[in-house]
Structures are given as C-alpha cells and as structure tokens.
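Q: Can someone sanity-check these two? First one:
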Amino acid sequence: MSDTESVLDVRGRDAPPFPVISDALDELGPDDRLRLVNDFEPVPLYDVLADRGFEHETERVDDDEWHVTIERV
C-alpha cells in the first residue's frame, strides 16, 4: 500500500482531458488518491467515476480552478 496523492493538472490542454484522466485512474492503487485540477467543474466525469468504483470530493478554489480528489471506494 502506497497511500499517495498524485496531482493531475488538466487546465489549458488543447486535447480533451478525459483520456489522460482515465489513464491516471487506471494507475490508482487501492489506497491512493488523485487530485484533479481543472478550470471548470467536471460534472460529466462524476457518473463515470461512480460507474468505475471511485468516490470524489470537489472544491472550488477560484473562479476558474476546481480540485477534485478521487479515490477508490
């Protein structure tokens, strides 16, 4: 068990961020967390997370900065 938190900042990308996010989720161990940093609230991602067995907590840091902490259920 590594119990680590990784940060993935997807702000300002030209390509859609979902493939990068999906790859990062695949790499998460049972006790690891992923902190996703985005420039908008990624509401469409929430159902995908639930379907894949993850829970999340979202924090609005600024007008254009959202942090979503993701971990396995």
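And here is the second, same format, sequence then tokens:
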Amino acid sequence: MESILEPAETRYLWVYYIFQLVASAGHLFLALLTIFSRQIAGNGVMLNFYGIFSVTLFFDAILLYTGHIYHKTDSIPSSIRIINASIRWVDNAFMSLITQLHTVMSASEFYNLKAEKPNGQEYNFDTLKDKVVLVVNTASKCGFTPQYTGLEELHQKYKDRGLVVLGFPCNQFGGQEPGTDDDIDNFCKINHGVSFQLFKKSDVNGDKTNEVFKYLKDKKSQLGLTRIKWNFEKFLVDKQGNVVNRYSSMAKPSDIGNDMVKVLVTGASGLLGRAILDNFSNDGSIQVTGLAYSRSSDKLIKCDLNDEKAIEGVIREQQPDVLIHCAAERRPDVAQNDPAATEKLNVDVSGNLSRLMKNIGGSIIYISTDYVFDGTKPPYTTTDTPNPLNLYGKTKLAGEKAVTQNNDNSVILRVPVLYGRVENTKESAVTILIDAVKEGKAKKMEHYANRFPTNVDNVAIALNALTKNIQKVPQIVHYSSREAYTKYEMACTFAEILGLPSDHLIADTEEPTGDAAVSRPKDCQLSRDSFDKLNLNVDDNLSFKEFFIKFLN
C-alpha cells in the first residue's frame, strides 16, 4: 500500500515506533530484573523497582506525545495501525506481568513471617493463606482498651468466613501494658472474653520492632511515615497476603466490620456476574459466592431462582450481608415473545429475593436498565419519571417496585447496555456487532439511537464501592459511561481496530418501525450525578476503544 503521509511524517512516525519498542523492552527488562533480583538478594533489599520503572515511563511519555501528533489522523495505513496495536499489546502484557510479580512477591513475604506466642512457641504465618487477617497492637490500660470487646465480636462474627484477628500487646505507649504475658492473657479473657490469638509482648517501633510490624509498616505507611502512633492501630491483609488497609486507633472494630462483607450474586455465570466475581474475589474484605443455573460450574452454586424453596434454602445457609441480583431476561425481543416467563424472572423472582434478604436482615442491589425511560428527554436523573416503551423495560420497572416494596434496605442500580470479556460475541448486544464487521456482507446498521455502552469491569468496580458503603447509598443510583455511540458507530470502531473495511455497513438513520422492531428509546443517557455525589473514588476510566483495542488484539 502506498503511504499517503509526507516523507517527514513517515520518518517521525517510525521514531514513534522506536520509542514504543524501547519502552516495551524496558518493561521486559524490569520484569526479568524483578524475578532475578529476588533470587540474588534473597530476602534482603530489593533493587530499586520504581527507579527503573520511571525510566520506562519516560519513554512512554514520549511515545504518547508523538502518538498524539502522528497517530491521531485516519490517514495512517491500516497495516501500521495493526503493528502499533500489537506493540501496545506486548507492552501492556509486560506491565501486567511486572505488577503481578510485585504483588506475588509481596504476598509471599507476608506468609514467610513468624511471631512468638506467650508460651514461647512459634506461630507461622504460612497458615494464614486464603485468610483475611486483622493485625492490632494492643494494651490493657489504655482509653482504647474497650476495643478488645469489639475485636472479639468481629472475630466471632467473621471467623467462619475466613477472618483471623491477631493481637500484639505492646508497652511503648504511655506504659499502658506493664503486665506479664500471663497477666495480659487473664485480663483479656476475664474482662473482654478474648479468644483470638495474642502474642508475646513486643515492640512495634524502634530498633526492637517485631518482624510482623516491620513488614506491615513498610507496606502501609501513612503520608510516608511508618511509625505506629498509639495503641490499637490496625492493619488489614487480604486473602492474597496484600496489606490493603491501615486503620488509626480511633477506628472502631465495628467500622472495620463494614469492610468485611459477605455477598451473594445471582446470574454469576453471565457477563456482569463474572466481572463481579472476579473483582470481589480479589478484594480481601469481601467474601463472594455466585449462583447460576444453566451455566453452573464447580465454583458456583447451582440454583433455579424460580424454585422458591431452593433459593430460600441457599440464602438461609449463606447468610449474605448483600445480594446482588444480576439474573434477568435482558433481551427485548425474547421478552416480547415470552411475556409470562419474562415477568416471572424479572418481577416475581426479584420481589421474592428482596423479601428473603429482609428476613435475614440483609440488603439487596437490583440491577436495572436505562430502558425504564422512553428516551425523549435525556439525560435522565433518578428523580425523573420512568416511561418504558417495551415489555422488557416494563418488567424491569415492575421488578424495581417489587424489590423496594419488600425490603427497605434495597438499592436499584440502573445501567445501560453492557460489554466486556465475552465467552462468545452473542453474549452482548455490543460484541455481536463484531460478527457483522467480519462477515463483510452489505448490512444495514442502526444509526438512529444513541447508546452508552458500559464496561462490566467498570460496573463491578462501582458495585464494589456501593456494596461497602451500602448504608449511605440512596435507593436509586444511575451508573453509565459517558461515551455515546450508535450501533453503526460501534461497528465502524470495531472495523478500525481490526483493520477491516467498513464500507459494507450501511448507516440506517430511520427510526425503527413495526412490531418486529420492539420499540426502543432514542436516547436514554443516564445522568451519573447520583453515583458521583457519593465520592467513592472509583477508577473507572477505561474507554470503549481502549478496551476493544486490547480485547480484539
């Protein structure tokens, strides 16, 4: 193919690719160094991870700048685009490897720790694998000493869910732990009923700091300072051995309990359900279990949601704090053709689940849709009056009402059309468009209705934050991406990423008509104000195009 770039532009374009290759090579070198430095240094000081990392980031900054200048035009040949996408994929793979290696080594260090029990026996931390661990420095004559009772309550409530509480008595703060190890043990048992593990009295600051607190302080400093400030500071370690949080002495054990949530997810084998399981499983403060029926597996509980006795038994056995209800008939055409089955799943089952969660004092998050609106006056806030156009939207709205009427501790999360790491392209109304691009046959593609396709990984991130803060979440929340696409625009984006022609796709700007079309709204953009005002600090900035560049390559 003859390049339509000027010679100077072509030359600078290749400079861009050279920088890209150098950055990728730098990341590979860093990954290898991360592996071998541990072997060379043993458990000693690791080679400067961030110093080398900053060098590769310098190259990344240059390539991103040059890419902005020379890669923003559509005149670059598709072959060059494919080369660039491939290089970026390799570069991202190296960065992922580096992050994983750093995390794995950090976790392995935690499980290598040891501590001395009051009787002189050694306690090996390798017994804590797959456990959530709360480590606390304690004292018997402190204003915070009543927290012993709260810690024991936390231990009793969550020990069967994998929580381990470890107490390290210390006399470094105001001399408030003067007794012997036997004195401390007797005091804690008699006054606070403590049954969790207490260790031999030791230092948590200074030259004689015990190795557990040396490690924890290094991994979770506060404003760059590692020093423990007073009795009853707390460190939370997840099931992978990562130090995920540090709490001050002021933090009550009950506050930490809010970070220890048991979650049950319906529709866990589906696109959104899988993303939720992936996200929550990697969060040490959440214990998550998934339900599925037609696509169940060894990792999921098989349960027919239409079987009221079966689902009641599961909920009573699991005792979840929060149930996230993803299962639904989401296909408007199928819903229209089988209204009875759709109403049973989308409405009756939802109401029943809400009632069952109320019976055990739990909360429910119901996943709803932007299709509860008619699409005539976007963007829609949570106070706007719904007016669904099709049966699917009507049953989802009825499901919302069934959920809120049966349980005051309920949250309705409305989302638009979803996409993500599908098992097959037909799993999402977004990815199914890829088939039309690849077929290369003339095909009309809707260019009438605006959609706001949203990544399920981003929804899972949002749900993680909502679950942990459910007590302050309003009853209805809207969550959506901010990028508008028609189906035609999505398909053309796929063609560009794949380096395929799109001229066989015909933009259809006419409003769909007829019963077969199943009325769909023109623009159901959801205002995110209700979510953003919660200030949950979620990182959900992955764009539509960025995701599919990685996914399709």
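A (reply): Looked at the second one. The longest strand covers residues 132-138. The CA atoms of residues 113 and 211 lie 7 Å apart.
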